[in-house]
Amino acid sequence: MSDDVKLLHKATLRMEAGIPTAAAWGSGAATSISDADGFPFLSFVPKKTINFEQDNTIYSQGFKDLPRLVGSYVENSFSRNARFQGPHNAHLYWMFGYELPPVAVDCITTATEITTLVAGDVYEDTEGNSFTFIRKETYGSTFIYVFSAEDSVGITGDLTKYSGDGPETITPVTKSGLMYEHVFELDKDSRHATAYLAGQKPSSLPAGQKCRRATIHFATQVTDYRFINCMCKKFSFGSEAGKFWEVGNDFIGHSESKGDYNSSSWGLPDAAQTSSTIIAHHQTQFRVGTSEATLSSLGVTSWGLEVEAPLAVEQDTASGIYLMEPIFNGKYNIKLNATLSRYSSDTYQGLRDAWTDVIVTVRARDGFYSKGFYVTKAKISEASLDDSEVTKQSLVFEPYYDNTALTTHFPADQFAFKMNSPVVCMVRDKNSTYSMIQY
Q1: Are 390 and 366 in contact, with CB atoms under 8 Å apart?
Q2: Residue 363 falls within a domain, yes or no?
Q3: Among 11, 85, 170, 217, whose Cα sits 20 to 30 Å from the Cα of 46?
Q4: What does R_g of the chain's alpha carbons equal in angstroms?
Q5: Lowest mean pLDDT: which of 42-46, 58-62, 239-243?
Q6: Range(s) of the domain holding residue 277
C-alpha cells in the first residue's frame, strides 16, 4: 500500500453543461478537470445499484434460474470537511440548486463599537471610492462592519461620510480587502435540466440555462472512479465539540465507470491542502430567537442540519436498464437539531409548548471569512433534557416555508431572493465566481 495516504483521498466535482439541449441523460460528462475542481474527501465506498429479477416460472430442481438484469444506476455517498476557503461554492450550488449573484463587499473592524451606523449609509475612502454600509455582525466582543463595495475595490485609508446617520469619519483597525458574499437557496421548483420558470432567472444568466448535474471523480489506490450526471439527493452539515465541520452528500447518478482518469495529475487548491481552512466547532456561533433583535448565542456541544430532496427515480423504458433522469417530485425534508451544554429549560420548553416561531443562525468565521446557515422560520418540536450528570438539552427544529419570512431575516439586506427557501447558506470569501453560470 502507498505510504502517501493523503493522495488516496482526492476527488473532483465539476458541474456539467447547463443547456438542456446540449446533453441528454446518460451523456455530457465533464471530462476536463482543473485544480479548482479538486477536493479532499473523508469517506467514499465504491458501489453501484443493480436491480435484478429471478424467473421462478422455470423448473430448475429447487435452484434459482439465471437472474435477469432489470436496472442499473448509481446511488452513492461521500463526505468531506467544510472549509472557509477552497472548493466549496460549486458544491453548495450543486447541493442547494440555486445561487444568487455574488455581491462585492469590504469588511472592517474598529477600535470601539459604532452604534450609529444605519444600513444604507454611504462612505468614501481616501481614493474617492464609494462604500455602502450593509450590516454589523457581532461575534462575542468582536464587531465586523460590512460595506458593499460599489466600485469593487478594497478600502484605502479612513472612511468619510457621504450621506447617512453614522459618524463623520471611521478609522478602520483591520480591513478585509475586496471579498464576495454568496447566497445559496433551495430550488423550490426543479432539480433537473430544464428552462427556468418566469422570474427565476437572474439577469446575468444566459437564456434557458439550468442544470443540477455534476461529474464526480474519486481517486483510490486501485483505480479511478467516474460518476456522470450526478444529482444531489441529500446533504448534511454538522459538528460537535472538539471536532471539525463535516459535510455529507448522497447522490444519484446515471452510471459508474472505472479506469485511469489521470488522477496523478489532479491538483487541489492551496486552501484545500491545509487543515487551517477547515471550520472547527469552536469557531461556530449558534443563535436562536423569536426575531432578529432577540437572537441569543447558545453554547452547543453539537448541531446538525440535513436536507433531503424528493428525487423520483423511475425506470427508463427505452433501455430497460438505466433510470431516466430523476425528477423533483414532492417536498424537501429539512431537519435541524442542536444539543445545549447549558440550558434554560423554561425558555425553550416554553417556546415548544406555545408552538412559537423562531429563527436560527448557525455561522462560523475565521477573520473576515465566514460561512453560515440561516433558518428563516421554524418551530421547536422537542426541547427535552437528558439524564446525564451534567444535564444537556436537545433541541429539534422544524423549518417551514413562509414567503414573507426572508424580508425580516438576514441576509435579506442586499439579496433579492428568488426561492423563499426556508434555509439559506451564505459564504463570504475571496472567490468572485458565480457558480450557477460558470462551469
Answers
A1: no
A2: yes
A3: 85
A4: 24
A5: 58-62
A6: 5-42+71-102+180-429
Peptide bond before residue 411 is cis, with ω within 30 degrees of 0: yes
Q: Tell me the per-residue pLDDT of 256-313, one tens digit each, with 9 for 90 and over.
A: 999 988 888 888 888 998 999 999 999 999 999 998 888 888 889 999 999 999 998 8
Claim to verify: residue 165 and residue 205 sit in the same structural domain? no
Concatenated DSSP letters of 60-84: -TTSPPPPEEEEEEEEEEEEEE-BS
268 shares a domain with 151: no
* CA 337 centroid distance within chain: 17
**What is the rounded CA–CA span in Å between residue 58 and residue 43?**
43
- Under the banding of pLDDT at 50, 70 and 90, the label for residue 146 is very high
Note whether residue 54 is domain-resident: no
Co-location of 328 and 423 in the same domain: yes
Per-residue model confidence as pLDDT tens digits over 358-392: 999 999 999 999 999 999 889 999 988 777 666 78
End-to-end C-alpha distance for the chain, whole angstroms: 35
Query: How many residues would you count in the chain?
Result: 439
Question: CA 305 → CA 21, 63, 87, 218, 423, distances in Å?
Answer: 35, 48, 20, 25, 10
**How many CA atoms lie less than 13 Å away from 306 in the CB half-sphere?**
11
